[in-house]
Amino acid sequence: ECPGMLDLKGKAKWEAWNLKKGLSKEDAMNAYISKARAMVEKYGI
User: Fold this and answer.
1) Pfam families under this entry (predicted)?
2) At 9, is the secondary structure helix, strand, or coil?
3) How far apart are the first and last CA of the chain?
4) Integer CA distances (angstroms), 13 to 3, 26, 27, in order
């Protein structure tokens, strides 16, 4: 169930998860790794 209009943080999180609906576990892991590598390259963490 979608959070109310006044719960901005909750609504943003719900919408982000809803966009990933149907993504396989392996695809999600690969996307996370790609994003993490890009951040390491950009910020040198």
Assistant:
1) ACBP (PF00887)
2) helix
3) 37
4) 9, 21, 19
